[in-house]
Design goal:
The protein is an alpha+beta fold. The protein has helices at about 120-130, 130-200, and strands spanning about 5-10, 15-25, 30-35, 40-50, 55-60, 65-70, 75-80, 85-95, 105-115. Helix content is about 40%, strand content about 35%. The longest helix is centred in the last third of the chain and has 69 residues, at about 130-200.
C-alpha cells in the first residue's frame, strides 16, 4: 500500500493556539511540524469526518523518531504530550483504506495549544479562591514570564549560532591558508622537477 506524504509547516511565535483544517486523501498522510522547547506541555483536540470502512490514525514523534503519543482509528477526541528537549515535533494523521475499497477524502480539524495556553485558569482560580481580576493578572504574569523565557532562549540560540559561524569562518580561513601553502609547495616542486629533467636531457644548462 502506497502512502503519499505532505507536511504542513506552521511557523509560530510563543504561546499560540493553532487551528487548522485540511482534507486527507485516501491512503495518504499529512503532518503538522513545529519547533518547541523542552518540558513544554502540548494539548490538542481533533475531529475527523467519518467514512465507512476507512480509518485515520495519528502519531506524534520527534526528529529522532521517538513516539510520544499515538492512537488508531480516531474520530473525535484529544491528544496530549510533553516535549522532552528542544526539537522539531511532528503530529501526523494517516489515512488507511482497504485495497478493495474506493477511498473518499476525509476532513481533519485540529486545534493545538502549548505553554501557558494549556492551563485552565478557571480551575486554578477556583482552587485558590481568586477573583476574576486576580485570575486575569495570574494569566498575564505567566504569559509575561513565558515570553521572557522564550526571548532568553532565542538569545542563547543566537549566541550558539554566532559561535558556530565564527568557528566555521576560522576553519575555512585555516583551510584556505593550508590550501595555498600546498599549491605553492606543489608549484615549487614542479619547477624544480622540470628543471632537473631538462638538465638531464641537456635541454638547458
Amino acid at each position: 500500500m502506497y502512502y503519499s506524504s505532505q507536511c504542513l509547516v506552521l511557523l509560530t511565535f510563543v504561546l499560540t493556539v493553532n487551528c487548522i483544517s485540511f482534507n486527507l486523501e485516501p491512503n495518504s498522510q499529512k503532518c503538522l511540524k513545529e519547533e518547541l522547547q523542552g518540558n513544554v506541555p502540548v494539548i490538542g483536540e481533533f475531529e475527523v469526518s467519518e467514512q465507512p470502512g476507512q480509518r485515520i490514525d495519528y502519531i506524534v514523534t520527534d526528529s529522532k523518531g521517538h513516539i510520544l503519543a499515538r492512537h488508531e482509528d480516531i474520530s473525535k477526541g484529544k491528544l496530549s504530550f510533553n516535549t522532552e528537549t528542544y526539537d522539531m515535533y511532528e503530529i501526523c494523521f494517516i489515512s488507511r483504506v482497504p485495497q478493495n475499497q474506493k477511498g473518499i477524502t476525509q476532513l481533519v480539524s485540529l486545534i493545538t495549544k502549548h505553554g501557558v495556553e494549556t492551563k485552565n485558569y478557571d480551575v486554578i482560580g477556583d482552587a485558590a479562591n481568586l477573583k476574576p481580576i486576580e485570575i486575569e493578572l495570574k494569566r498575564l504574569e505567566d504569559l509575561s514570564n513565558a515570553i521572557v523565557q522564550d526571548f532568553a532562549f532565542m538569545r542563547k540560540r543566537e549566541e550558539e549560532m554566532r559561535d558556530t559561524n565564527e568557528s566555521t569562518n576560522d576553519r575555512v580561513l585555516y583551510f584556505s591558508i593550508i590550501s595555498i601553502c600546498v599549491l605553492i609547495g606543489l608549484a615549487v616542486w614542479q619547477v624544480l622537477y622540470l628543471r632537473r629533467y631538462f638538465k638531464a636531457k641537456k635541454l638547458i644548462e
